[in-house]
Amino acid sequence: MATSQSNDQEREVKEVATKLQHLGPRKQAEVVNDIISTQFSRRLGGFTSFLREQSVIGIGIGLVLGTQVKAVVDQVMQSFVNPLTQLLPGQRTFSSQIVTIHWNARTARIGWGAIVYSIFTFLIVMLLVYVTFKLLKLDKLAKKK
Asked: Which of 18, 48, 101, 113 has a Cα at 20 to 30 A from 84?
């Protein structure tokens, strides 16, 4: 297939060279301009097909929206959940809760609050994405194969 494409390209180059020999300077410029615009549209058409086939734009939009949803959830956690957890004994934020383990004169500090905080944030983001997906009926937009 590659040799067929290279043969086609060689033939096109010869045709253009022949056309250019018999034309005036103005017509030569027009032919070259047409060839350049044709090549550009082929390349651009291939790129846009790639974007459509691979759903790159949808992935990009999802990434941007997901990032923004996470930012909102983080703010809710910091502004609402953390103040509520300060009402618990110890008066520290939930994400700063730690447990210290002592073993043979060594100490390990495990930030269990930060782990639970991250899991809770993840679950809220997943819930929001799922609810949005179902409410907007985005599953109906998928292409049928």
From this structure: 101
Indicate whether 6 pLDDT > 60: yes
| Measured distance CA(31)–CA(7) in Å, rounded | 21
Domain 62-141 class in CATH: mainly alpha
Alpha carbon distance 115, 110 (integer Å): 9
CATH 1.10.1200 domain locations along the chain: 62-141
pLDDT tens digit sequence for 89-128 = 766 677 777 888 898 989 988 888 888 888 888 888 888 8
Interatomic CA distance for residues 121 and 125, integer angstroms: 6
Question: Judging by beta carbons within 10 Å of its beta carbon (0-12, 13-18, 19+), is residue 100 exposed, middle or buried?
Answer: exposed
Q: Nearest Cα to 61, choosing from 73, 49, 53, 69?
A: 69
| Tokens of residue 51, six digits | 């974007």
d(CA 39, CA 45): 10
In this structure, what are the phi and psi dihedrals at residue 108, rounded to the nearest 5 degrees? -125, 130
CA distance 16 to 9: 11
For CA atoms 64, 65, 68, 73, the dihedral sign is: negative
